Amino acid sequence: MKKYTEIWEDIKQSLEEDLDEVVFTEIFRPVNTVFKVVNNYIYIVAPNEFVKKRIEMLYLNKLNKYLEYKVDEMHKFRIITEEQASKELSDSKEYNVNKADDSLTNRYIHGNMNSSYTFDSFVVGNSNRLAYTSGIKVADQPGIVANPLYIFGDVGLGKTHLMQCVGNYILEGDMNKKVLYVKTDQFVEEYVRSASKRKFDEFNSKYREVDVLLVDDIQFLSGKTQSQNEFFKLFELLHGQQKQIVITSDRSANELKDIMSRLTSRFEWGVTVDINRPDLDHRIKILKKKLMAETSNSDLIPNDVIEYIASVFDNNVRELEGALKRVLFYCTAFNIDFTVKSAEAALENLVKPRINDNFLSENKIKNIMSLVSDYYRISTSDLISKKRTAKYVFPRQVSMYLIKTLYDLPYKKIGTFFNNRDHSTVMHSVEKISNEIEMDINVKKDVEKLTIKCGQK
Ligand code: ADP
Ligand code: MG
Prior knowledge:
Elements: H1 2-18, H2 21-28, E1 34-38, E2 41-46, H3 49-70, E3 76-81, H4 82-95, H5 100-111, H6 129-140, E4 149-153, H7 159-173, E5 179-183, H8 184-197, H9 201-208, E6 212-216, H10 225-240, E7 244-249, H11 261-267, E8 271-275, H12 280-295, H13 303-312, H14 317-333, H15 340-376, H16 380-384, H17 390-407, H18 411-417, H19 423-439, H20 441-453
Parallel strand pairs: 2-3, 4-7, 4-8, 5-6, 6-7
Antiparallel strand pairs: 1-2
Bound molecules: adenosine-5'-diphosphate and magnesium ion (MG).
Magnesium ion (MG) binds next to helix 7.
């Protein structure tokens, strides 16, 4: 079954690349489970009749086309709804009460888990080692060592993957554990729906009876006061019963906006870990692992080509994976060798806009840096250096502040322009200058002048 789940995940990823984002999110994102494979029909589970119909009417041929490339023997997809799948399971259980596989599948359906996200398939490097070891510890002793486990980092760096590893590991150890994965926006939606009907039974029994709750992208609770209250109650209840909670977010708990502090402070009760961008070696390892998973041959693509892909796609593992698949597809479809040249051709459309993008923002940033250095009569190299004399530190902080307020780049990204300073240093600098602007009229005037020089006012 694992093999088919992986195939489905792959096809889903291709769909994500092919389809309009809204269509993909509405129709395919919630389709995660391969329910069974019978007579060469692969049954995938749609959340409801509407999605099932849409897929059958509009996409089934497309899906079956993709499938032709993925399996040797002729297979086709069939769609069933979650309701049908559950019914079939409970019917079959009357005959076969202890069939292990069924229970596991059952958990996957209700728990919304993706069984291909395992610790095994998670490649460890400096950027995620702490997150990984914390994940393992939590999976080993849920509810005990770190509750909640709070994982944060930029998009596409493996937060969802890692949180699902924890759930899958716990399920593998004890399939009677109720592991529930939920995206925060889905939680909000379900809560709002229950509240509008004033019917909370289903909602409560779904969320309050779990052993492990995985809540993805908690930043989406922002501004949703009622849902925050509900989540607060749920958190208290589960935490009180030593049920493990894992939370992911795109930022640290104290950077969350418009979420009540009694909630964010609880997010820091357990262990907080961040995931950063993988370095070049790490990216190469990830590509090799994905290549192995994809083709069962990690040497199929020569090292220089792998290195080329890894060097171009440096800030998002999802994009890195997408690039690899594109190269694979391109070279296989046109029957050409895997060379750097062919990889360049395969990735042309993806690479060009990225380079321009980077180029643009880098230029703008260099411009700010040179304006600020001129203004304070220091050199740009001192501005970005590690020198800690006030003469350099203050202008440095001002330039970080200007970059943040003018272009709103992530703190981490800004740090890369200043000798790879980490994001907390940048954050601190930006905050310091904001405070000084309030307190000191001279600083305020200087920053205003500089803002005008940077062409923004
Ligand atoms: P996030 O939730 O942080 O946005 P995801 O967990 O969805 O990121 O990861 C994006 C893609 O990158 C997934 O396909 C995931 O399997 C892959 N990925 C991310 N980090 C790793 C890693 N360390 N090892 C293997 N695959 C990874
Ligand atoms: Mg995610």
